[in-house]
């Protein structure tokens, strides 16, 4: 019996101000999933609306700068939510999240030629992921917008 290999995949969340459309913090979670690409997407999409509540978050990197017409100094550590659809912007914003999650990956023990060897699951060059916008309202309410990347 052959099975699809287990691969790390991710859910990412951008916390969006419903008033401004700006993101100041992001979160993520890694999963070890098997199955076809469609199977893995289905799992990620099923978990995306709720798993943000148990995920590690970090501020948007200070390297992200937004010029605002009526403010003298540019805003640092913010990004417009609509810009996350651009793969380059997405990479810049979520790279610190991926790095944080990879650092937290548990070390596994595997037997290699009869010798216990420590191993960490590799992160694929192209990380299969789903990005979800989380809108937080002043009354404590939350709405999510899941999108496949």
From TrEMBL:
Record's protein name: Uncharacterized protein
Organism of this sequence: Corynebacterium kalidii
